[in-house]
Amino acid sequence: MTVRTLAWKGMALAAAVLLAGGCAAADGQAAQRKEQNPAKQRPVERRSAEDPKPADQRSAARRAADRLPAPLSAADAGKAVRPAGGSGGVDTASPNAEADVPAPAPEVPDDIRGIYVSGWIAGSRKPMERLIRLVDETDLNAMVIDVKNDYGKLTYRSALPEVRAAGADRDPAVRDMAGLLRRLKAKRIYTIGRVVVFKDPLLARAKPEWAFHTKSGALWRDQKGQPWVEPYRPEVRAYNIAIAKEAAALGFDEIQFDYVRFPDNGDAMDRIVRYRNPEGWTKREAIGRFLREAREALHASGTALSADVFGLVTTAHDDMGIGQTWREIAPAVDAISPMVYPSHYDRGTYGIRHPDLAPSAIVRHALDDAGRRNRVLSSEGKKPGRIRPWLQAFTATWVRPHQPYRAGEIRAQIRAAEAAGVKQFLLWNPSCTYDYR
């Protein structure tokens, strides 16, 4: 089913709801696999729209273009949130109960061609009009819009008490998210809400007991000085699933989780952090369980789920210390989006001396590996998510050597993806400017 067909179906359904009186509520990894030793991988983050400068020259310069008082009750989290392992005050209904029968998966288009839109752009009239016009005038048909950004701030006014208690929806960038989504649907644009999950410094400060702590008891911080919340905590999982459900109710066709992982540099982190993991889950198991919980909650409302992963997840043989593996994540989502930005791959990856100068080769190799892994999963009776890569639409000026990424370089990546059998893509540029035609 194409996105345009799905959009028409959605418009018809929306019209029926309105007639009945209903109305929606308001708003890379440097990813390297050395040919001889694929275990020596060091993931790097892509830079957010609000963090346009490299964090610290080439080691962090590889981080190109990066995505409350009481614990949540079942009612606060939307009543349908059931974290596996059943703790933390959320509903843990019997697995045999009728309510636990999985809802059918929503129909997800197989021809998505989208762009990233930050919350600030989505809430600014002229820049947003420019992007809508770009979609109107090209073959693009989708937008990935920030719902919760890299700092833990929501881009719309939330009705969730736990969000408001944390101050996460103060001064929202988008005044009327539901109205914006209705307008995009009228134009048959497929809408994806981006939720940054475990990189949430705002929530970590508001609820420090939900954050990572060192063995000495201090709040753990990443290389940029930011605390993260812990994926093992059921309250953290419930908080993010509640936000995803609220965004779905606003009208998003799909929710996309970004930073759905543990922080990078996992070996060093493991030496100093005391994890609160009473179930004894591995990192990859914690991420997989969270995604399956979220998928169940979102499918119940007819909303699809996707997840972003580091580019080298398509190739790596372990979780790289961050809890992301293709085998765990691909079957837990409707679409999986490896961030295959050439600038995020280390020198020598796939035998390519300067990855940023070879966009076609990097994208083709990464997506060939992804396709093989999906075929293996399918042969085992699993249903992996569709492959929908993030492609590089920004110039990585901090990489040496680098090249400008304009229309030609973007098109080269798209052709490489198509050669690997992948017909859809998303374009990432933190400033939301796209040389696409």
How would you characterize this protein structure?
With 437 residues, this protein is α/β, with parallel strands linked by helices. The chain has one domain (3-85, 113-428): Glycosidases (TIM Barrel), CATH 3.20.20. 32% of the residues lie in helices and 10% in strands. It contains 13 helices and nine strands. The chain has helices at residues 3-19, 57-61, 119-122, 125-137, 161-166, 177-186, 201-206, 234-250, 266-272, 283-299, 326-329, 359-379, 407-419, and strands at residues 113-117, 142-148, 190-196, 254-258, 304-310, 335-339, 386-387, 390-392, 425-428. A nine-stranded parallel beta sheet has the order 7-6-5-4-3-2-1-9-8. The longest helix is centred in the last third of the chain and has 21 residues, at 359-379. The protein is globular, with a radius of gyration of 20 Å.
- Rg, alpha carbons: 20 Å
Q: What is the CATH C-level name?
A: Alpha Beta
Q: Largest beta sheet: what is the strand line-up?
A: 7-6-5-4-3-2-1-9-8
Main pleated-sheet profile: 9 strands, parallel
What structural class do the secondary elements suggest?
alpha/beta
Q: Which stretches of 5+ consecutive residues score pLDDT under 50? A: 6-42, 47-99
Strand residue percentage: 5-15%
Counting DSSP E segments of at least 2 residues, the number of strands comes to: 9
- The H-and-E topology, N to C, reads as HHEHHEHHEHHEHHEHEHEEHE
Q: Enter the CATH topology name.
A: TIM Barrel
Structural domain count? 1
Number of helices: 13
Helicity level:
25-40%
* CATH architectural name: Alpha-Beta Barrel
What is the approximate shape? globular
Q: What is the average per-residue confidence, as pLDDT, rounded to a whole number?
A: 84
How far is it from the N-terminal to the C-terminal residue, by CA? 24 Å
CATH superfamily: Glycosidases
